[in-house]
Amino acid sequence: MNVARSVERFLEQTIDRVSGKVFPGSLQLGTLATRLVREAELAGRSTPLGPVIPNVFEVGLHPDDLPGDDLPLPVLERALAAALEDAGAARGWRFPGPVSVRLNHHDTATPGTADVGTSIESGDRQPWGSLSGASGRHPIANNRVVIGRSPDADITLPDDTVSRKHALLWREDGVVRVRDLGSSNGTTRNGMPVVGDVTVGVGDVLSFGETTTRLDVLA
């Protein structure tokens, strides 16, 4: 996925036009977007359930590199955050909360470069899909979610036939997949046992133990 194009697309959809360069100095928008993705990868933490990535990015720019008046700073921050969300969806990253990019002026920053720091702030994310069934509608907000009986699971199913950590559901490269996590009673997709990583489509029926759900994708 081209993160620079992702930022440009967001800006095109948000404001009528951006005259000239985004940054008045030598800093390039695509370079900054790519740098943020790289910093996310470097700061990420590998887990058995996939990479966990910081969701807050503090970016220090030299005052000469701050964008002009035709591009409000909050709009550019949202565009960069949207690009990181797109990168996360493409790579199957797990964010602990909404992605936030904060651009600040640093007098000590080198012109044409950016100082980037990352941190974690927990919070609610916008759902991209849901699992619906007799147990209710369960929003899917993160790119990777653990489904199980445990209260610590991302989607908790109150069913004794469901293991505490029963299955992993995630999206990556535009594809949704499910994996059984060694549950006692198994996971099925449209009645077929889930063995390894199995691709899931909109409307597919996923059963975890004796709990049956249907996958809906919102975005």
Secondary structure: elements and pairs:
Blueprint lengths: L2 H12 L14 H15 L12 E6 L11 H19 L8 E6 L8 E6 L9 E5 L2 E5 L3 E5 L6 E2 L10 E6 L2 E6 L6 E3 L2 E2 L3 E4 L4 E4 L2 E7 L2
Parallel strand pairs: 1-2, 6-7
Antiparallel strand pairs: 1-3, 4-5, 4-14, 6-8, 8-9, 9-12, 10-11, 10-13, 13-14
Report on the structure:
With 219 residues, the protein is of the alpha+beta class. It folds into two domains: 3-119, FhaA, phosphopeptide-binding domain (DUF3662) (hypothetical protein PF0899 fold, 2-Layer Sandwich); 129-217, Tumour Suppressor Smad4, CATH 2.60.200. It has three helices and 14 strands. The strands form three sheets. The chain has a six-stranded antiparallel sheet with strand order 5-4-14-13-10-11, with no helix packed on it. A hairpin with a 2-residue loop joins β13 (205-208) and β14 (211-217). It is elongated and about 60 Å long. The two termini are 17 Å apart. The model has no long low-confidence stretch (mean pLDDT 89).
Q: Name the CATH class of the largest domain.
A: Alpha Beta
Please name the CATH architecture of the largest domain.
Answer: 2-Layer Sandwich
Unreliably modeled segments: none
- What multimeric state do the chains show? single chain
Supply Rg: 20 Å
Q: In this structure, how is the largest beta sheet organized?
A: 6 strands, antiparallel
Q: Proportion of β residues? A: 25-35%
How would you sum up this structure in a few lines?
This protein has three helices and 14 strands. The protein is α+β, with helices and mostly antiparallel strands and 219 residues long. It starts with a helix and ends with a strand.
